[in-house]
Design goal:
The complex is a heterodimer of chains A (481) and B (503).
Chain A lengths: L4 H6 L1 H19 L5 H20 L5 E3 L4 E3 L1 H27 L5 H18 L4 H19 L6 H32 L4 H10 L5 H19 L7 H8 L2 H8 L1 H17 L4 H24 L4 H21 L3 H28 L15 H4 L1 H15 L5 H15 L3 H27 L14 H19 L2 H11 L3
Antiparallel strand pairs in A: 1-2
Chain B lengths: L4 H18 L5 H25 L8 E9 L4 E7 L1 H20 L8 H20 L3 H10 L1 H11 L4 H30 L4 H6 L4 H18 L8 H8 L2 H26 L1 H6 L1 H20 L4 H30 L2 H36 L10 H4 L1 H15 L5 H16 L1 H25 L7 H4 L6 H19 L2 H18 L6
Antiparallel strand pairs in B: 1-2
Classes of the chains: A mainly alpha (481), B mainly alpha (503).
């Protein structure tokens, strides 16, 4: 397969990341466990450098015979994926240290997963999507099992692996049918073939589509393919949950968009309805079951399912402004989710996970500032203005109403009210209940951790008031008005 | 400064609130003085609004318009007419009194308490001057969080239940309005209230929108049968919270009807005016009876608030019937004016009543009527104030409570004798439950030792109650400044009522 130097330029950020990770493995072998900070900061440095390469990279284009696409959408998604992974690393350090999990593997696996996400959002062919996805998920399986001594963690990893492998299989099966129907793996060619009508292969194509949507549903954690998600979120070490709960949602959006719009845009009438069903189920199951949870990580897992429902609602209407709204939602959700799990990481210390909702009791009396930050995060997740989460919901609702999906919008907001209840309960516990332990909260000595949470919380307020530039960026990337 | 007066009024209390918050929980005294200073400065600034406003014109003034989010055409668009000015000054005025009232009665996390009220003040002012629907909604919903915290932290024994109920009810209501607003945006590509008002809509569209708005504002007012959050919230809220809820937050519902329902969905409003009038009458009469049997003072006043707010919605929707069916503009004007005067007056009277309950609650820590009796013997000054506010609550001529109700009843007479008769009937019920409350709490012999040990109000409490009393009497005897302020704006609204948007 011939390729030019231009192709390599396109791939520069990914190539850099790959070589840097390989280098990091070698460095990590050389440093003593007491000097693990070297790995930590180098990993962050690698991400910052990759981010710079993405931001200042060459003009958009397609490379490697269309396998790899670099366009406005992939750039936007990569920027936020990288920013969030950087934040996750800062969040994670203290927690890992306290639990003897401060090992090079965490960083290496996360970086490989990041590489997978970057390839995924830049994929130009079915194969590339599969490769990127597997790089992401295989790294994630191992990350979930990072704490080998914990039975819960191992069980979660096992569940994740079995169901994840099944999902990958389903996805691959769907891809093979699409390939069978169109005779090509290239997303753009598939798009053209579908648009021009491929005759008697319509049935095969639709069958393939069903499997693709199921696979996408699995990866997103949309109901009814959500079973793995609560167990994995709860069972993983919180630092890992922070990782798999945030940036991969952006990547999943990228994958769904490339597959559904990029390749099968002509079948919108079919997949639009499928996504709408998934969206309603996710909103319902996520929001209702979350109420019953007492474990915060599990509650946030169900909240993820409900947020995925909202995201799919944006995706389902199949218009550029709907995609832009869904993309905005994915980014907003990843930022909120990082902050939500980050607040658990802040309160956790050696021998204390702080993952029960009751562990937040009376936080306002023990540390008003962080109670306020968590308040911002919860209010934003609940979608209360003027926070970021509200505007993300607003844009999805607007796109849905634009497309005439009135009833779906009403279902979505009814569940948003249900959802408000369990977020409020966290605020209630922090502000209205008496603390279990007396005295001022003993904060970890990790200054970057404290700062990143404060900044992340404040960003929810700031981005809520001034989300214009980000929204314009999303609209421009999607070519929406 | 004059061109950004409204922004100052919104952001000064919010920034001040965060400054108070930053003082930390241990510097209670500093927090009190700083909060008071911020509230007083805000009040003084709002006086500028009153003096600078050209009442004769009745148009939107002090306009500020900046691009907020270009991608969805949202603007930071502020402006006030006479109605808004009156409500904004009420807000800044009551906030000063609330902060004064909390001086000795709140000791726990003082800085957070005061900060919540200041932030709330800024947001409420924002609601009254937003001319962009999205901006309005942001302020409208943003208020929920501070109020949620206020009731939840400093409230009574069942505060958590009450505050969750308050939050979910209001959230439930307003989110349907959000869908309505987004729908309007998809139709007009604008969030500007003036453009939404100019948008042509079929009766079916209007009906859907009307009910979306109705749910939001009816919960806020609150109208029967969605009023049940209010007694709980009022009873459990700390004194300041009850005062702000009754005096200002309820008014936002009435204000919403005037700003959204009537201009945007005039035909549907006319179509369903009978429903609103019926619900208002139920609120006025039935809830009045409910108030009669209450044993908790705050609950009684809360139900009385629902009943009084019934006059507001009655006034608004009876005008609609008057002007669009009978073409009687003068009567319609009377109805809307009555509703507005009733809102302002109820702001003073209910705020004062809740402050009164707060005064004895601070001493006795009970709100039950049966725990009191013969308070006049130990607290003569206090008793004098209570009796005055009770008279205002019954709508006695010479107090502000009379003016609004009288105007609404007068307007109702021109529409339908029976509606007016039923509304007037409540004056009797109002007098019954209020005077009976006064009889049981204030008059008679001292019933128990706790009452015997009561000390009369101190200078600070006298200042708070005295200020409320002055306002009540002023607008009762001489309502002209108030009606003059709103006169042209209300005429403008009445003119708008005539616009037919269908077709």
């Amino acid at each position: 397969m011939p390729f030019s130097l231009h192709d390599l330029y396109l791939l520069l950020p990914e190539a850099f990341l790959l070589f840097a990770v390989c280098g990091l493995i070698a460095v990590d072998l050389l440093v003593k466990p007491s000097q693990r900070d070297v790995t930590h900061w180098l990993a962050i440095g690698v991400l910052v450098a990759t981010l710079a390469l993405v931001v200042y990279s060459v003009a958009p284009g397609r490379g490697f015979s269309g396998m790899f696409v670099h366009d406005a959408v992939s750039r936007l998604l990569k920027v936020f994926i990288l920013l969030i992974v950087i934040a996750v690393f800062v969040y994670a350090r203290n927690y890992l240290k306290d639990r003897k999990l401060y090992v090079g593997e965490f960083y290496i696996l996360c970086l490989f997963a990041t590489l997978g996400m970057m390839l995924l959002v830049s994929a130009g062919s079915l194969v590339m999507i599969y490769v990127g996805l597997e790089l992401l998920t295989l790294s994630s399986y191992a990350l979930v099992a990072l704490n080998r001594d914990s039975p819960l963690s191992s069980e979660a990893a096992m569940k994740y692996f079995v169901l994840g492998a099944l999902a990958s299989g389903i996805l691959l099966y769907g891809m093979s049918m699409i390939y069978g129907a169109t005779g090509t793996l290239d997303l753009k060619s598939i798009h053209e073939l579908v648009a021009s009508g491929v005759g008697d292969n319509k049935v095969l194509l639709t069958f393939g589509l069903v499997f693709l949507v199921a696979g996408i549903g699995f990866k997103f954690g949309a109901a009814p393919f959500h079973m793995w998600l609560p167990d994995v979120y709860q069972g993983s070490p919180t630092a890992v949950t922070t990782f798999i709960g945030s940036a991969p949602k952006i990547a999943a959006f990228g994958m769904a968009w490339r597959l559904l719009e990029g390749a099968l845009g002509g079948l919108h009438q079919h997949w639009g309805d499928m996504l709408a069903v998934l969206a309603v189920l996710s909103l319902g199951i996520g929001n209702v079951v979350a109420i019953a949870q007492s474990n915060l990580k599990r509650m946030l897992a169900y909240s993820t399912i409900s947020h995925v429902g909202f995201l799919l609602l944006g995706l389902a209407n199949g218009t550029p402004s709907g995609y832009a709204a869904a993309m905005f939602y994915a980014i907003a959700y990843a930022i909120m989710s990082a902050a939500a799990f980050g607040s658990i990481l802040l309160l956790a210390r050696a021998g204390f996970e702080a993952e029960e909702i009751d562990d937040f009791k009376g936080l306002n009396q023990r540390n008003p500032w962080y109670a306020f930050v968590v308040l911002l995060v919860m209010a934003s997740l609940a979608g209360i203005p003027p926070l970021f989460g509200f505007f993300a919901k607003l844009l999805v609702l607007k796109a849905a109403l634009d497309a005439g999906m009135l009833w779906l919008s009403i279902v979505a907001i009814v569940f948003a009210i249900v959802g408000a209840f369990y977020y409020l309960r966290v605020i209630k516990v922090m502000y209205f209940d008496a603390p279990v332990e007396k005295g001022v909260l003993a904060l970890p000595h990790d200054i970057p951790l404290r700062w990143i949470l404060s900044v992340n919380g404040a960003a929810l307020l700031f981005l809520g008031l001034f989300f214009g530039p980000l929204l314009s960026w999303c609209y421009r990337a999607m070519g929406a008005g | 400064m004059m061109q950004s007066l409204l922004s100052i009024l919104i952001w000064l209390p919010i920034v001040g609130g965060f400054a108070v918050l930053a003082l930390g929980t241990h510097r209670a005294k500093g927090a009190r003085w700083l909060a008071l200073a911020v509230a007083i400065v805000t009040f003084i600034v709002s006086i500028q609004l009153l003096t600078g406003y050209d009442a004769a014109a009745g148009t939107m003034q002090f306009i500020e318009q900046h691009r907020w989010i270009a991608a969805i055409n949202a603007n930071y668009h502020l402006g006030v007419d006479g109605i808004s000015v009156a409500l904004i000054v009420l807000t800044t005025f009551v906030t000063v009194l609330v902060i004064l009232g909390a001086w000795d009665s709140v000791h726990d996390k003082v800085n957070q308490y005061l900060a919540a009220f200041l932030v709330l003040e800024g947001l409420m002012v924002g609601v009254f001057c937003a001319l962009d629907a999205l901006l309005f909604y942001v302020f409208f919903e943003g208020m929920l969080i501070p109020m949620f915290i206020i009731i939840g932290i400093w409230g009574g024994p069942r505060r958590v239940y009450a505050t969750l109920k308050f939050f979910l009810y209001t959230f439930f209501g307003s989110i349907f309005m959000l869908v309505g607003l987004i729908y309007l945006y998809t139709q007009s590509n604008s969030w500007e209230l003036s453009q939404l008002a100019a948008l042509k809509l079929t009766l079916e569209q209007q009906s859907w929108l009307f009910f979306a708005f109705l749910i939001a504002f009816a919960v806020k007012v609150p109208m029967w049968p969605v009023h049940t959050w209010l007694p709980d919230a009022h009873v459990e809220a700390p004194t300041g919270g009850s005062v702000i809820l009754a005096a200002i937050m309820l008014k936002i519902g009435g204000y919403g009807f005037l700003r959204f329902s009537l201009p945007i969905t005039p035909d549907a409003s006319q179509h369903f005016a009978w429903l609103l009038i019926a619900l208002s009458l139920v609120a006025v009469i039935y809830v009045g009876f409910v108030a009669l049997v209450q044993e908790d003072m705050k609950k009684l006043i809360a139900y009385s608030s629902v009943s009084h707010m019934g006059f507001v919605t009655l006034g608004i929707f009876i005008s609609l019937a008057l002007v669009r069916v009978g073409g009687n503009k003068d009567a319609a004007y009377l109805g809307v004016s009555g509703a507005m005067v009733q809102m302002i007056s109820h702001g003073f009277v209910s705020g004062a009543m809740f402050s009164c309950v707060g005064v004895i609650y601070d001493r006795m820590h009970t709100r039950m009527i049966k725990d009191y009796g013969g308070v006049v013997n130990t607290m003569p000054w206090y008793a004098a104030f209570v009796v005055l506010f009770a008279m205002a609550n019954c709508g006695l001529p010479g107090t502000s409570g009379f003016v609004g109700e009288f105007m609404v009843i007068l307007a109702s007479f021109q529409s339908n004798f029976w509606i007016a008769a039923l509304a007037a009937f409540t004056l009797i019920i109002g007098a019954a439950y209020t005077l009976w409350l006064v009889k049981r709490v204030i008059w008679g012999d001292v019933t128990n030792d706790h009452v015997a040990k009561l000390k009369d109000i101190n200078a600070r409490e006298a200042l708070v109650l005295g200020t409320f009393a002055a306002a009540t009497l002023l607008f009762g005897i001489w309502p002209a400044p108030l009606t003059h302020l709103m006169d042209a704006s209300i005429k403008h609204i009445v003119d708008q009522l005539l616009i037919v948007k269908v077709g």
